[in-house]
Predict the 3D structure of the following.
Amino acid sequence: MTAEASTAGEAGARSPLSGLTGKWWFWAAVIVAVFAIVGLDVWGLDEDAENHKAILSFLGDGLVGFLKAVTEPVALFWLKLGFAIETSMTGLLVGVLYSLVALGFVLIYKASGMFNYSQGVMVLFAALTFVGLTEYGIPVILALVMAVGVMILFAIVVEFLILRHLVNQEQIILFMATIGLAFFLEGFGDTIWGSNVKKIPLDLPSGAMDWLTIGDWNVQVQWLDISAAATGAVMVVALAVFFNKTRIGRALRAVADDHQAALSVGINLRTIWIIVWSVAGIVALFAGIVWGAPSGVQFSLSLIALKALPVLLIGGFESIPGAIVAGLIVGFGEKIAEVSWGDSLGGGIENWFAFMLAMVFLVIRPQGLFGEKIIERV
Amino acid sequence: MIRKLTLVLASVTLVTSAVAVAQTQAQTQYFPVFSYRTGPYAPNGIPSADGIVDYMALLNERDGGVGGVKLVTEECEFGYNTKRGVECYERLKSKGPVIVMPYSTGLTYKLLPSAAKDKVVVLTVGYGRTDASDGRVFPWAFTTPTTYWSQASAFVKYMGAQSGGMKRLKGKKIALIYHNSAYGKEPIPTLQTLAKRLGFKLTLLAVDHPGQEQKATWLKIRRLRPNYILLWGWGVMNQVAIKEAANIGMVKRMIGVWWSGAEQDVAPSPKAAIGYRAGTFHAAGRDFPIFKDIDKYVYGRGKGTNKSSVGQILYNRGMVNAIFATEAMRGAQKKFGVKRVNGDQMRWGMENLNITAARWTAMGLKGFMAPIKNTCADHEGNGPVMIQRWNGKVWKIISKPISPMQNVIRPMIEASAAAFAKKNGITPRKC
């Protein structure tokens, strides 16, 4: 079989619904169905409308009962518009922070095809370094600069000790290497800076502002969320400019597109790796600061990487816009889900809901919203 | 000839070593310490373990051990992971422990059946399985000095008093934000029973491990506008919850379980947490004579674990664990006339634990804790609960000791223990 003769690999990216998802009428039908169900439900909420109840009754308790259980909480949620707006805003602001964490993964994946398992621990280590340095009396700004320096040094060491020895290795080997790196970094950070909860030494805003009143509801947004999201947004814009408008950024994109081609035009792969790991380290530092503001810097910061996984699955592993949009989808979706269905499902559903959402996206679009379609020719 | 001589020498060495080991064992008592100095709960695990180890070191250095028997501690790091905790237990079992302090409710549930078979006392100070307080069904488990159910009932009493009487709780909205685990779910039956009885509306809000992100929960709190919020958290869940409550101006309505009321919990936002209250069953700080001894005999001799932990709430609680275990050992030594106690004797010691106010004073801990007395049937000791408040710098106790609602709690404990006994074919012993 020749390389051109088969496109069997394409099946790897094909989902059971992929034939339908390309049809406009499929999506039109989905939208109409959702509106019909929610509309019928809201309509049925009017207890005086006997004819509405009769229709619901006529349709039967089975399917309608299930759909009602699913849609009624959502309908009720949107009927309380003020609360719905506040929930949506909060979800979107949290989503920006998810994007920030996911970006670290995306950067490294784009440049080296490596899923960096240690990204979560990098968040912890970077934040620990920053706070730890201030505990030695170093001024905040200087400590921030020094923490950036440490993350760049870390990138150089990783390239020197790990990456250069693993060129052309299987992805699973690269992945395993990052697992080892994560455990090392976790223990190293603990040994150097200790395990106690550390306060972020920045005078970050606290409290909430009432910015809108709808009915009897004051829509509040927390200052900390706004400032964290603003920081995240600045980081995202800075990265976008860096990747699109600078020479190094273009080189990074070239490497991401095709290692061999990039090498053939003289791009130094090792330099690119150092730059990418440095940028991922700096992103980790900012993520650590914004996530550590409410909780303090402590081990659990490393677990926020789990929050980035559904974002990556939805947005695609190699797409910066994908990480941003998917972060917003996850943040928004999980908050609405928890507030709408959390109580009836025993609460605490937002964590697994994000993964369920990711699974749905995987079925419909395996490569993620902005991921590149995988076509392997054999 | 040389061969014979070598054999004789080897045999003598072996016998001498065996005798020496046996003698050493007779002069020491082994205490495994289940610690978590790593992982997401390390900030809580470190001072807890420090308190246990330092107190045992104090007894060794100052008093030469307990009744002339040196105490040997060995830490096993389990990262607050139940599976690893069970592995620790299995590994250390061969060294002859007679008491274990799992420091995790999940691990407690796992260890209870095997520890009973191995004749090892399971001491769970302020955590664990509440119905194990019924000594007739759980002879090897001790929940001294008080339990989650007792604490929940004490909180309801406190909220009643704050509202102007228990009757005023009717119609009040109380939200329980809990760690979505066996630990977090412990107070639910008590609160549900009391909600029915007293007419307050209870809302349950679960937060998944580790609790770094809780926005949806706090949106629900904003919508609910409860009169009181009970926080049943652990680790990072506490810090985030306190910050979220402060951001929406509800920190003063919130009362935390005793595992949500330590210095670590308010560390990220000490100012915003001012006014936050939490339960406790012992005092905070180091204004007790015993701490001078700890400085002198433990840290002065380079035997301490971590000086910055000393006097922290969780350090003091670790010390309480060690105090109960060693006081039970002391009682057993006296009763049975032995040096090194075995499992049965330690169990007797725990069952007859009686720490009076005079004994607390003698230990250099006057006013540190209420007197505790266990019985064969009651392994809880009916310890009171106190409320403490964060003032921006330290935790201060602001309430008198609140006795749990034993008329409500004890029947629940007995019913639950009886159901457990029936299901597992256990015949409750007579006390």
